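Give me the fold.
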Amino acid sequence: MKSKLVDLETAASLIPSGSSLTIGGSIIRRSPVALIRELIRQEKSGFTVLAYPAGFTTDLLAGAGAVDRVEAVYEGLFQFGFSYNFRRGVESGAIDMRDFDEVSMAARFRAAAAGLPFMPTDAMLGTGMAAYNPEQVKEITCPFTGRRLHAVEPAASDFTLLHGYIADEYGNVQFPVSRDADDLDPVMAKAANRLIVTVEKIVPHREILKNPNLTYIPHTWVEAVVEVPFGAHPLSCDGYYDEDEEHMEAYQELMKEERFAEYAEKYITGPANHAEYLSAALTPARVFDLSVR
């Protein structure tokens, strides 16, 4: 096996402006926030974002003016409220938003993972959603039953970006036994044209071999793996740390007033790297408060 271990800066440099990005995690859980910050730091832009429930990472990209289109089932910050940057982008016409129900978006990712040209679904029947997505949704008739269905286009993107738990240097990524839902990360990983994974910790390969059944992303799918402790902060990472409510509430107050540049200077473009971000965002006491014990 070949080592795929790189640093955060190198991983972000692999992603050119204008790429389509599938971003894993769920709203305020286990999303690759450190990698998105590094993309903004490197002044990458023009992205199309595909997500299941999108959230904080998409709002960061919207604040930086780095996203042109979003295809997802939801965009918001859960208990923290609206995604103000994203909302302003859609209202101004700067962001093209394509809205899907959960079943249909999951079907799109599964079609991409299986290498199929489409996936059938009946979830949008009786709604107006298909009419607003004519490029990705076509009405068909089942050849076996004659039922009316929709065929949805695969959610294939240039890159899938995930944040996980532990991995070895070869890119074998494992989840812990005790965790929250895995959402669609394994499906998104399989659907990737190119897959980059950040994890909380890189462990020796022998540790992976002790529990091979916990490996949900094998090394053969991965192009690059990065060790990024607190890589989802200020979001949560199951079993490691909870979301940073203090940080998120402060973020929202700034975003309401369209003060993204001020936030970015302190936490994104000001810090030279992830280590400097952690110094700015987390005191030792805050690390202790957020850590799952």
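Residues 239 and 258 are 33 Å apart (CA to CA).
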